[in-house]
Amino acid sequence: MFVDVILPVPLDGFFTYSVPSSAAEQVEVGKRVLVPFGRSKTYVGIVAKTHRGPLPSDFQIKDILQVMDATPILLDTQLRLWQWISDYYMSPIGEVYKAALPAGLKAEDGYKPKTEIFIRLTPQFRSEQALHIALDMLMRAPKQETAFVGFLALSPLDAPQPITRDELLNQGHSLQTVTALVKRGLLETYEQEVGRLNHSSEPHLDRIQPLSPIQQDAYNQIQFSFLKKNVTLLHGVTSSGKTEIYIHLIRQALEQKQQVLYLLPEIGLTVQMMERLQRVFGNRLGIYHSKYSDAERVEIWQKQLSGHPYDVILGARSAVFLPFRQLGLVIVDEEHETSYKQQDPMPRYHARSAAIMLAQMMGAKVLLGTATPSLETYHNAKTGKYGLVELFQRYKGIELPVIQVVDIKDLQHRKMMNGPFSPLLLSKVREALEHGEQAILFQNRRGYAPMIECKQCGWVPHCQHCDVSLTLHRNLNQLTCHYCGNTYQVPAECPNCSCTQLQTRGYGTEKIEAEVHDIFPEARIARMDLDTTRSRQAYERIINDFSAGRTNLLIGTQMISKGLDFDKVSVVGILNADTMLNYPDFRAYEHAFMMMAQVSGRAGRKGKRGLVILQTKSPDLPLISQVVHNDYAAFCRSLLAERQQFRYPPYYRLVYVYLKHRQNAVVEAAGVEMGARLRQWFSGRVLGPDKPGISKVKSLSIRKIVLKFEFTLNMADVRKYLALAQQQMLQDKRYASLQIYYDVDPL
User: Fold this and answer.
1) What is the pLDDT of residue 606?
2) DSSP 8-state assignment for residue 139
3) What are the beta bridge partners of residue 79?
4) Could you give the 3-state DSSP secondary structure of residue 664?
5) Sheet holding 312-315, edge to edge
6) Which H or E run includes 616?
7) Sequence-separated (6 or more) residues with CB below 8 Å from residue 74
8) In whole angstroms, what is the distance from residue 598 CA to residue 604 CA?
9) What's the whole-model pTM score?
10) Cα separations (Å) of 389 from 23, 246, 386, 398, 632?
11) Is the pLDDT of residue 196 over 60?
């Protein structure tokens, strides 16, 4: 008997091992096995297939060392999803394995259950008479007597409760005192496994709010759409009450004994959504994302395989890999978000596409929800591939915010700007704070300043390993590369001309925060960016403080644009729209429209109409007018016509080819050769090689080739040719240490 095993290594295909007769009955697809690899390594692999011989005579085969599971940890559907991701995104299945499984399930020593020390009466003192004797024994040891009585209060003889040692210590008794009671034989300690998962309250489906007539109509349309289409787009403006519709759909799925996967693009969003869903679904809700500890993720994985899995999973991108047996509904909220696409490392999958494929495999329905659909999704809905339900009225009739455009180029010319703030923005923020309301300032750059520059000769410090300038983080007093993470000391003088006048250029969120402190010293300010949200607790604290009104002015990057719901925000300031517009990418306008529309949607959520101040040097751009009038349809029409003309998605499929090497000359030659190979097969569909905007990262020089394919082409054949080209290149000794990888459907 033989098994084909998936190993966590970046190599294509499965690895075949033989099964000793002693393990033959234990081996099963989806179970983990410990296997030897190479001369001295061992790996935890997953059985993908079992089969009988014979194998070719020249086949050298090793035995598996151990079967690690009593039951499979990977279900058949998951295995099929892994294979699809591997094939479609041209990534070795071992890389999918590494991305999908929590680390505790990949390690040889594995996951260790969390245990706690509990305390109880010893058997000989579990009677009334024995307790009187015990209390007599303790008369001359008052501290021990107090601790013993304290224990009996927590766990009385007639109704004993499991009590942890920490609970007893938290009553003010010392460890020394409790240990003395154990030595005297009155109490005994024992270890017991305790779960790390949240044990929230029972479900309260009665807390589900009734839908408004407009929401009810959208809900009914979604139900009708699901009769004909497996995927439906809910295109609803910000604050139209999409979440309440989701909750009603979840309840219906649960009534039909189905599981629900609810995906969100950012971990920060799960904080508010978790509280909202827990109030209704209680302990039927599980949370899964990368800010949870590995042990917590292992326990959720195991719970999903148990006889009592969570019915609803709320999670970020990686939650699509969890095991489901009864999946009936997948909700992809904020479906337009680029965070759903994994960039590095492999597999470079899109969680939205993976979720749709998972649902298709399990016969489930998919609802894609957003105020600003991605062009691909909107095109699919308009051409009938997906269902389409539109919700263009805010909940309770609240109007969309007024968006006022401020020409900062003109104001700078007239010397009327206060740093990055226009007079109108400052007056409206001051007004909001004076009225007990809140304001949000959006600046999509973190750090203090994107660069520093010598005032005399113009020298700018660059990263030694990447082709980028360094960002100043003044709180840490260091320069940081946002590509490789390396940090540098802030120079006292220019190395070129010895000038000591080094000035900052541009504004990051840290500098915005410092200047706002000076202008509004009475404001309670919070900053939300990658630097302030390193931990799960930090996310939760910032969002909860702003929700509760403990802070009233929030400064942030794109994180604050992602579906957060705050009641008292009356003013939103977009400090510089041009940083989003002037980006060398065919998706720049799409991403800019989405971000501005989403940030604007944070204003005026309840009780009054909000105001958005949009600062730009290009007020006459059609895109700015489309944002002001929330005219998504006009925005799409103009962009789709352009995309079709220049052969971009949604009319063509893109694949980027990246080549990386430490030596620029090697990668230059390899790029030319790779381009020539690909042109033999794909002719005019190949563009490049070119230097990307950032042409060196982590000491590796980069070249990029763009491939544009019609949807009529057989992509399985295309992938074969691409794999062949990669294989031929890497067989050449000149390119032995060359890295080549593909990014399918890049964002």
Assistant:
1) 63
2) T
3) none
4) helix
5) 285-288, 312-315, 259-263, 327-333, 365-370, 231-236, 387-391
6) strand 611-616
7) 30, 31, 46, 323
8) 13
9) 0.85
10) 54, 13, 10, 20, 15
11) no
